[in-house]
């Protein structure tokens, strides 16, 4: 993962309703908002409409990284719209709204569309965008998340990537289903989300079709194009289990397979904790080059080969698959809420370690809590990390510490009840840190303001008190280092490397 810097920051986030509907004056239409008003990335996403489906059809040439596409967006205006914005960076050839040619202007990733007639609130509409460009050559505000490789490309990134391969409403609040079809030269493989519905060849080219039927945030849609060995089996819960390993992995190939092929076992374990797996397929992708991080692409995480350079690493597989519940099914309402993704994914590694006998969650807590108070690690508050620290160590490791401390305060049964209620009530939607705190207090029957203030919102090391969930074991000198620490630390070094 990577961090976006130099962005304008507002004082507070818009609520979900304000994001999807910024009403015009009574009886009149107006343009949709050009951004979601996210406090960390206010220009991401758009207002005035809600997308239900993307149909993305692409023709890709690995030799020169040229991408030609037509994306059809099925959406419903949430206000009377005279104009609206899409998030997109590639050169646009034409746009039709409800079949009619429409005017447009493009600046950076802001694509402003003016249809010939006002779009009425609540009436389903289609936006068809034709485009053609070279994604690796398009930079906006110093950013280009598209990864060109020697044999293809990777469209993988967080919090931004979609604008470099399909136009859309690029914010986790507006999820949609996807059909993705990619035409490539014969002998080139394409990976994406969900289920491979068809693969056909004609005149020296192959079209790969992928479909995901569950609501998906735009940044969690992905492409892996190149030379891959693709394997399809039956995984956990009787679902399709699709893995892909790039040619050229060399000496890490065995370790990568020894890790990623355990995905069904990991999902069984996680479902036992969190409840029903929320999607229709599972798997993993390991490219040979270009990627320095891992990402929880919905149904099919992608892993840098760096994770396996020292041997098998199941911690990263646990981390990315825990995100299928925390981040993918239940997404951040704004990017300020990133602890809800990374804290839970990191704590899931601790629970896996406990189950595998390589260190209990308490032993891991003791190890990380023993970090000196003056360490920079303690100076970032996970509940308000700031846009430059959304992938900082504190969000991951202090985030996991928070959850274990909470376990110590409210007990195992209460914490499991809170977590299972959270993922069930928020399935396919979004949540805020404040929502989680309120639910925790409601389900546990405890008043926890001071606890969460210390762990999530106050820079500095939380005091070693029972009220903060810190047992005496965490303050002893010479804390033992659990076996799992090396693997977990390696995971967190690469899972949020700058791109």
Automatic annotation (TrEMBL):
InterPro entries on file: Aminopeptidase_N-like_N, Aminopeptidase_N-like_N_sf, Peptidase_M1, Peptidase_M1_aminopeptidases, Peptidase_M1_dom, Peptidase_M4/M1_CTD_sf
Entry's EC annotation: 3.4.11.2
Family statement: Belongs to the peptidase M1 family.
Catalytic activity: Release of an N-terminal amino acid, Xaa-|-Yaa- from a peptide, amide or arylamide. Xaa is preferably Ala, but may be most amino acids including Pro (slow action). When a terminal hydrophobic residue is followed by a prolyl residue, the two may be released as an intact Xaa-Pro dipeptide
Organism of this sequence: Saccharopolyspora gloriosae
Keywords of the record: Aminopeptidase, Hydrolase, Metal-binding, Metalloprotease, Protease, Signal, Zinc
Domain Peptidase M1 membrane alanine aminopeptidase: 311-455
Pfam family, one: Peptidase_M1_N
One of the record's GO molecular function terms: zinc ion binding
Coiled-coil zones: none
GO biological process, one term: proteolysis
Chain ranges of the Aminopeptidase N-like N-terminal domain: 52-220
Gene3D superfamilies: Neutral Protease Domain 2, tricorn interacting facor f3 domain
Signal peptide extent: 1-26
Protein name: Aminopeptidase N
Cofactor(s) this protein requires: Zn(2+)
